[in-house]
Amino acid sequence: MKTVNIHEAKTHLSKLLDQVAAGEEITIARAGKPIARLAPLDLPRKPFAFGAMRGRIRIADDFDAPLPDDLLSMFESGEPS
């Protein structure tokens, strides 16, 4: 956790907020004593809804068909044939 003094927090607030948005917590101190903490908010996430992409994507009828032998051998060996 990073600690900054009040003057630095006032001077670089935008930069500190970018760091907080990236997940970092920052302590603000006065005369070396911690007085506040900047931390990311735990915002509720929207629940996943099955079928939300219905009509927007298309899956080919043969999407799970076996691969051709030459392509399958490349996947299994890890090298081009």
Produce the secondary structure layout.
Blueprint lengths: L1 E4 H6 L1 H9 L4 E5 L2 E6 L30 H9 L4
Parallel strand pairs: 1-2
Antiparallel strand pairs: 2-3
Concise overview:
The protein has 81 residues and is of the alpha+beta class.
What is the N-to-C succession of helices and strands? EHHEEH
User: Shape from CA axes?
Assistant: elongated
As for the CATH topology of the domain at 2-38, it is YefM-like fold
> Can you count the beta strands?
3
Could you give the distance between the termini? 51 Å
Reported for the largest beta sheet, the result is: 3 strands, mixed
Number of helices: 3
Structural class: alpha+beta
Low-confidence stretches: none
Give the DSSP E fraction (strand runs of 2 or more residues): 15-25%
Q: What's the rounded overall pLDDT mean?
A: 90
> Helical amount among residues, as a percent range?
25-40%
CATH classification class of the domain at 2-38: Alpha Beta
Oligomer: single chain
